[in-house]
Amino acid sequence: MTDKHLSTQFDAELSEISNRVLEMGGLVESQVAQAVYALTNFSGETASLVLDRELRVNQMEVEIDRDLSAIIARRQPTARDLRLLIAISKTIGNLERIGDEATRIARTVQRLMNSGVSSRLRLPVADIAFGANLATAQLRKVLDAFARLDVNRALEVLKQDDEIDKEFDGLLRKLITYMMEDPRTISSSIDLVFVAKAIERVGDHAKNLSEQIIYIVKGTDVRHHTVEAVEDAVR
Amino acid sequence: MTDKHLSTQFDAELSEISNRVLEMGGLVESQVAQAVYALTNFSGETASLVLDRELRVNQMEVEIDRDLSAIIARRQPTARDLRLLIAISKTIGNLERIGDEATRIARTVQRLMNSGVSSRLRLPVADIAFGANLATAQLRKVLDAFARLDVNRALEVLKQDDEIDKEFDGLLRKLITYMMEDPRTISSSIDLVFVAKAIERVGDHAKNLSEQIIYIVKGTDVRHHTVEAVEDAVR
């Protein structure tokens, strides 16, 4: 077996594992979308779908991590290949946490439905859907950036995270006003506060995923950098 | 240079990096303790100390991660050594997130103080301190377990996470009652809801750290397992 042959096999392994990361990403993306659908439509059935998928997402995390270790031990990669494998390990950790946030939203929907509060909560639910659409768009964009290892697209996601944070702050103020006007809604509104927080976290994780893409391609660890410093690293 | 010599050098590297993980752990442990002290004593000065340390914690995460990659590329470890290095990578990610939670609490203290709400919030603050002490004790215990690679101690931490979750649920109910009785406290109480959530997360991260210790020593990935299944893996 020649070195070239070995290297081609290795490339195939890297590409196979990257595809599984994208598959896992698609799964959690649909979990988030379904969780938000379940909330805005008070659909217990859709909430159950999200919870059903949690097991598969967790399983994928464990399987991909196990295979990453096996590849590192067998192939002893260096430079960019090693960076890719280490970044994948962090990436799937982030994806699993996005799945957790979707699961939290789905459980909240079930609890809200069990306490029968649908009609009273119409207004903030629509606002949450707006923030959730921003977060889902960020997630889709960063998965797309991962698929093409496109640092410019990753940088866009990083720069847009502020918008989700602002949306969250506005939503929180709205929920507080809502509770003050009608204290009977406090308990349900607190549930929505946590949903809003979960969506903000999805945005944060999308940002973390962007940083991993930049690390793979550029070799620079841009975590904890200002946006300006990340732009310098990318250009 | 003999193989034995090389191996001794490698052992020294592993031990040096483990010590830095413990140093980082000590730093975030004191951040959490200080954040809780700042809250219970309304000390803006202590809150500032927590924020000052954030930079150093972030820096340690980046430095340790960089050195981990360099060690993997140079030493090409397998089996337990590779597991240790991969687990350390996840461990420092968790420690950094614990530092983030402490930072969130410290920022909330500053905001509460700026809005001048100290006296009215006495009751729930004491309850939060109780939950926070549980979480800090868990964190101390798991760092101790990491230092000795003690799986039984790690297992204890894992089993005790339920207590923090119960504490959080009780605290949330108390805060909701509090808001209903006096809607003027809603805004500040929401701040305390997030503080309580941050403390619950510290507990979650301590649990994650336990799972990494079990992975290093036993080679079994026990994430997403039931407590019973983890006990089987450890014994």
Properties at a glance:
mainly alpha, 7 helices, 235 residues, homodimer, Methane Monooxygenase Hydroxylase, Chain G, domain 1, globular
Describe the structure.
The structure is a homodimer of 235-residue chains. With 235 residues, the first copy, chain A, is mainly α. Chain A has a single domain, classed as Up-down Bundle (Methane Monooxygenase Hydroxylase, Chain G, domain 1). Chain A contains seven helices and no strands. Chain A has helices at 3-40, 44-75, 79-114, 122-148, 151-181, 186-218, 227-234. In chain A, helix 2 packs antiparallel against helix 3 (79-114), helix 4 packs parallel to helix 6 (186-218) and helix 5 packs antiparallel against helix 6 (186-218). The first copy, chain A, is globular, with a radius of gyration of 20 Å. Chain A starts with a helix and ends with a helix. In chain A, 43% of the residues are buried. The A-B interface holds A 58-59, 61-62, 65-66, 68-69, 72-73, 76-79, 82-83, 86, 89-90, 93, 172, 176, 179-180, 183, 186-187, 190, 193-194, 197, 221, 223-224 and B 58-59, 61-62, 65-66, 68-69, 72-73, 76-79, 82-83, 86, 89-90, 93, 172, 176, 179-180, 183, 186-187, 190, 193-194, 197, 221, 223-224. Chains A, B: It is found in: Cytoplasm. Chains A, B: Homodimer. Chains A, B: InterPro entries: PhoU, PhoU-like_sf, PhoU_dom. Chains A, B: Plays a role in the regulation of phosphate uptake. Chains A, B: Keywords: Cytoplasm, Phosphate transport, Transport.
